[in-house]
Write the structure tokens for this entry.
Amino acid sequence: MSSANPLLDFVLIHADNSLILSQRLSEWCGHGPVLEQDMALTNIALDHIGRARLLYQYAAELDGTGKTEDDFAFVRDELDYKNVLLAEYPNVDFAYTILRQFFMDSFYIDFLDKMVLSTDTRLSQIANKSLKETQYHYKWSKDWVIRLGDGTEVSHQKIQTALNRLWEYHGELVVPSDAEKIMIAQKIAPDFEEIKALRTQRILETFAEANLTTPSNPWQQSGGKKGYHSEHFGFLLTEMQFMQRAYPGLDW
Amino acid sequence: MKNWPLFEIFIRSKNGLDHRHVGSLHATDAKMAIENARDVYTRRMEGVSIWVVESKLITASDPGEAEALFEPAEDKIYRHPTFYDLPDELKHM
Amino acid sequence: MTTEELEKKFQERIDAEEKIEAKDWMPADYRKTLIRQISQHAHSEVVGMLPEGNWVTRAPNLKRKAILLAKIQDEAGHGLYLYSAAETLGVERTDLIDDLNSGKAKYSSIFNYPALTWADMGAVGWLVDGAAIMNQVALCRTSYGPYARAMVRICKEESFHQRQGYDILLTLSKGNDAQKRMCQDAINRWWWPSLMMFGPPDANSPHSAQSLKWKIKRVSNDELRQRFVDMTIPQCNILGMTLPDPKLVWNQDRGHHDFGEIDWVEFNNVLKGNGPCNKERLEARLNAHNEGAWVREAAMVHAEKRARKIA
């Protein structure tokens, strides 16, 4: 569902990506493979919640109808969330979680780098802060892809399985939606072709180092940016929205 | 399975100060130890620099020899500036 | 020196408030007591992540979600600081975790109670963390150096934990009837288990006397419990809520509040494994450990491969 405000739509795509990814990452809290990595996963989740808040606050201003960051985060309908399908993909296991993170980070590292130059000063400021976080996330997720790919037979098989399954979701990030096309034309968003090329290079280099085989099927799923999500998503929202739905309009 | 080795972590809280021992953690190698230390020991802006060293590589003095090692310094009070009585009219030295 | 002489000298150091460090001579039982207590404390932090983790994905707004997540992450950090202190005594973290998973090692029984509503996030922060801090502040002066230093770091970080919990309840207490009901209900359920956190009465506490003599423990169970009760009552009054104890009354002569008898049958029952969530908590830890095994192994194997390549 797109509104008449492409800038708002654009902001929401990235706010939703951060919120939904952090929701998934926070499911790990207390269940990580080792305490040190439990904390690393939580740190990344916290960075994304912080980023989502900055973007929703901006969205609320753009919207101008008195909505708050929490109205955007918790009381929209499923069709109004614009995050990519990748962000909502369930954790499954550590290998899926790592690969999902790597696909997100390998996009955002170059996207944010260019967003710093956005003609929209607010987005440029947010990108400046987010970029430093993502540089660290990228290093972390890339290292883990390599560790698991070039670790034991079991870990190699698990991350290859995750790759085979998640491959069809990695492309949606670099295909601009209608709102994003307008943003690119207005120089609010950077050229996606360049980012796509940089990202492909990052992905191929990393997979080579991790001894992973890139799947041959080029088909990519899409729909998230338009509000058409996976069947998993309704359950994620049910949980995330529970309080705001059960007790509407209260302070917490 | 071999356990992840233990690393000792040293953090410099700001430039101009020494690195200080803050504790330990487990990591597969020094590179991961630095990353883990970042997440474990600098969540509240406690540091600007991290040192890590595998715990087993540290050689410590023997507490049983502490007297022999450190007590001989006790009677060398003339090494401290307070040992010297200076005239009151001398303001700076 | 004979063991007796060493023990005498050790006690003299303790009495003189000297800290004991990792490589110093210490009685075998001092070491054993510390390993038991510090690891139990570490396990409590890690198991303690579970009831609150249960609400991270349902937190009512973004601000609370971020605060709660940061708070639970701190618990992981605190578990880690404590395991790290225990490891200075010559044990491995994996062995300690195996003892937790096998049920041999204990953790604080409080975490065997369920977190049922959002108000529980408030009550856990205010009462459970409040009780824990009471204990931890006293432990900052414990005689074993690495433990004392870990506690100092933990206390510094914990200071926001209790406040965030109280802040949740304060907001609920000013809310509508449903929120007030939630608030009072959570206080009702968490009050008595929080008092139990200080452990059995001094008269029935088997390890207490020796621990106090060694200054591992600095303040007795009953004294800490009394301090907690005295501190909590005015805070509860500000919330406009009540504590579920009709015998709670100010005693002018003692200069303290009197309170009702703790249900030690329930305490012992939960301790034995019959609390509402004992099995879930242990299963969750065991699953995380077992499902993480291939990850830990892969990372180690990869690091060894890399080291060989460089060599």
Observations:
- The first helix of chain A runs from residue 6 to 26.
- Chain A has a mean pLDDT of 97.
